[in-house]
Structure formats: structure tokens, C-alpha cells
Amino acid sequence: MTKKALEILDYKSKSKDAGFFLMVEGSRIDMAAHQNDPSTHVREIIAYWDAVQVVRNYIKQNPNTVVISVSDHETGGISVARQISEKYPDYTWKPHVLARVTKSNELITSALLAFTMSNSHPGSFMQQKKEFVRHTVLSTWMGVNDYTEEDVDRLATYQDYGRIQQCLSDIISKRALIGWATHGHSSVDVNLYVSGYNSQKLRGNVENIEIGHFIKNTLNLDLDKVTKLISKERTEQKYKSSSSKLPDILQKLYYGHN
């Protein structure tokens, strides 16, 4: 998606002798952290790195381009080297536990809630569901073979989406020695990466508004003009039909028309 977006914008901008702005969001990183799903979290981060590399490759061919990589917040309060016993802690964590997982907590939870009884397998509904949990969910999808019957019972009986997700998170996170502080956002500082044109002007520990100022100054944007244009368009819409004028606004902003 990032590669195709750059191809389209590059072609359009050069044909109009203009620049462009592209935002690429790795939103599933956030969602995986909300669910405290470490294996999906790391895979989404790797996918984001791949997207960043596409942009950096574009910068090599277009040195007047700048890329900014930053998050609006940290989610989950994730940590490694989780202590799960009362004895003196081990300074380690086990990433191979994450590598064995093949499905996200989100997909597994949906499969558990949608489970239906099969006429081709003997036993009651609960017996069949527990077998599904043992052999499909835990052994195949999560790569966990040292599960307990308590793990099986919880996944087979829970009907609440959040409780199932928490159970799945605990099964993997405890084995990988990963800790979570919250299912929400935290106040931990986030990393900021900048590469390309004028990138030396945005470095160190900065407030989030400084990133907006950097973009404004680098692109020489007149935000007051844009604000007035949008406000005027919204005011006019109150007295017009429900047909949208958004395409007109975008054209004015893109081509710089008054």
C-alpha cells in the first residue's frame, strides 16, 4: 500500500510540479497492544519496518523528501524480563514463544465464540470444544503444548470477548516472560525517527507539537489560510444542500487556488 501510494503521488506531483504529503499508519500495532497480544504486536511492528524501508528507498531516489516515524502514544506498558515467581528473578525473556504463534488473539477469540458442534465428532458440545481448544487453539495456533487443564477450561467456557483475550494474553505472555501494565495507553515516551531533507532540524527529546511545526515550516504551509478556507466551506454548507463540497476543498488545497 505504501509503495503504490508513493507511485501515484510521485506521478501526480511531478506532472503538476508540486509536492505531496502522505501519512502511513501502522494502526494494528496499537490494537495488538490494547489486547496485550505480544506475538501479533511484534509482527505488526516488523510489517511497519517494511513500510518504512519502502519510504527510505524512495528518499534515496528523491533526496528532497523527508520521512518522520513516530507514535502518538505507547500502548500496553509492555516490558520484557517479567518476573513470574517469588524467587530472585531471572534476567531473561523467551522470544521463541512468540515465533510459534500463527494466529492473533483477535482471530482466535472470534473462532472460539463462533465454535459450533460437529456431527462428525463424538461427544458433547463442551467435550468437542475442549478438544478444539487443546489441539487447534493451543497446540496448532499458539504453539503451546505445556498447557494446563485450567487453560483449557477457561478458553472453552468463557463467553466474554475481553476475558478470552486476557486468557490468551496470559498464556503467551507468561511463557515468554513479557509483562503488561494496562490495556490502555501509557505516558511512556515514544521513539522519534527522521530521515531525509532537513531531518537534522528535528532531533533529541521534543514535544509532540514540535513535529507539527517542523512539517509546517518544511512544507512552507499557511495553516491560517487553510483554517479559514475549511471554516468558510463548513459555514456555507449549513445553507446548502447535503451534497459534499470536500472534493472542491481538496482541489483548492492541492493546487493552491484561492
TrEMBL record:
Gene3D superfamilies in the record: 1.10.60.40, Alkaline Phosphatase, subunit A
Keywords tagged on the record: Magnesium, Metal-binding, Phosphoprotein, Zinc
Cofactor: Mg(2+); Zn(2+)
Record's keyword annotation contains Repeat: no
Protein origin, superkingdom: Eukaryota
GO CC list: fungal-type vacuole membrane
Binding site for Zn(2+): D30, H34, D72, H73, H185
Root EC class: hydrolase
InterPro entries, per database record: Alkaline_phosphatase (IPR001952), Alkaline_phosphatase_core_sf (IPR017850)
E.C. number: 3.1.3.1
Annotated residues for binding of Mg(2+): E25
GO MF term (any one): metal ion binding
PANTHER family named among the record's database cross-references: ALKALINE PHOSPHATASE
Protein name: alkaline phosphatase
Organism, scientific name: Smittium megazygosporum
